[in-house]
Specification:
The radius of gyration is 18 Å and the shape is globular. It has one domain. By secondary structure, it is an all-alpha fold. The protein is built from 13 helices and no strands.
Length: 298
């Protein structure tokens, strides 16, 4: 097990937690379509510049291109859209309870498509870590942004968030397969974002979402300052980190460590709000870290 890969996966969890806070905040003001339509082109440009500077912008084979495309479509276009829709429906933290199951879905898909062996200790570690994450999220219900919802809305939000976990897992598995077959982490991150940009804009044009989205942005120009920060921690820097982590770790291990995102969110919001986490949150964090240790030491 690569210590550097473990560090990068945990760094990805913190990066994605920050990006999720920023993009969820923006989505509440201008809507999910506007966020998706702006952040993806911005991330593609940033990653494209890095690829050019580092001489790593090469045209992959058709097979690798389709793997990167599948990763972008499942992980970014569908997965992120479901993630934000779930967060807006039932709140950011409750949605993350469902999304914490993505490591289990990744392990399942990885064993089927990548022939990755998890073993009994590996499954035990993921189960313990997931229980810890769920305890943290359930104990952190003081989020003022959690909307009041009916039972029907709550069920809808849970289903959407579970779908986000499934599609994010599929995106991770396709990314891992592309890395195993020779594409670099940086060009993979670029192609994932570039293909997602084309797909998101095509869907936006087909459903007439472009004009309303930019109308919302025009009515709320102050929200634009959030996009560079969200891009840095989300689709640009965050995805790049995740691709590098996947290059060093099995898909299931990387997904589980990245799935510690609620723990990262707990630390970040604790610092931002200058408050001590609830006792159950601290216990849940210890349980989650224990589960991660069981998985890593198998």
């Amino acid at each position: 097990m690569s210590g550097f890969g473990v560090f990068l996966a945990i760094a990805t969890a913190f990066s994605w937690a920050l990006g999720c806070v920023v993009h969820t905040t923006a989505s509440r003001v201008v809507g999910i379509p506007a966020v998706m339509l702006i952040r993806q082109p911005l991330a593609s440009v940033v990653l494209g510049i890095f690829c050019l500077v580092m001489g790593d912008l090469w045209l992959p084979s058709l097979h690798l291109f389709w793997l990167a495309a599948a990763s972008g479509v499942f992980g970014i276009i569908i997965g992120d859209a479901c993630q934000y829709a779930g967060a807006l429906t039932i709140g950011l933290r409750p949605a993350q309870v469902c999304q914490s199951l993505s490591s289990c879905f990744t392990a399942l898909f990885g064993s089927i498509y990548l022939n990755e062996y998890i073993g009994l200790q590996g499954w035990l570690g993921m189960f313990v870590a997931t229980c810890g994450v769920i305890l943290v999220v359930l104990s952190e219900q003081r989020d003022a942004h959690n909307p009041p919802v009916s039972s029907k809305q709550r069920n809808k939000g849970v289903i959407i968030s579970l779908l986000a976990a499934v599609f994010v897992a599929l995106g991770i598995v396709f990314s891992k397969q592309a890395l195993q077959e020779g594409i670099g982490a940086l060009p993979l991150a670029f192609y994932r974002n570039a293909i997602s940009t084309a797909g998101i804009w095509a869907v936006g044009l087909a459903f007439g979402a472009i004009r309303p989205a930019f109308g919302n942005l025009k009515a709320n120009p102050g929200i634009l300052k959030l996009f560079p920060l969200g891009c840095l921690f989300g689709p640009a820097g965050g995805i790049w980190l995740s691709c590098v982590a996947l290059d060093y770790l099995p898909a299931a291990v990387a997904a589980m460590l990245i799935g510690l995102q609620p723990i990262a969110l707990l630390i970040i919001t604790g610092i931002m709000e200058r408050r001590i986490p609830a006792p159950n949150s601290i216990i849940g964090s210890i349980i989650a870290c224990t589960g991660a240790a069981i998985l890593l030491l198998r």
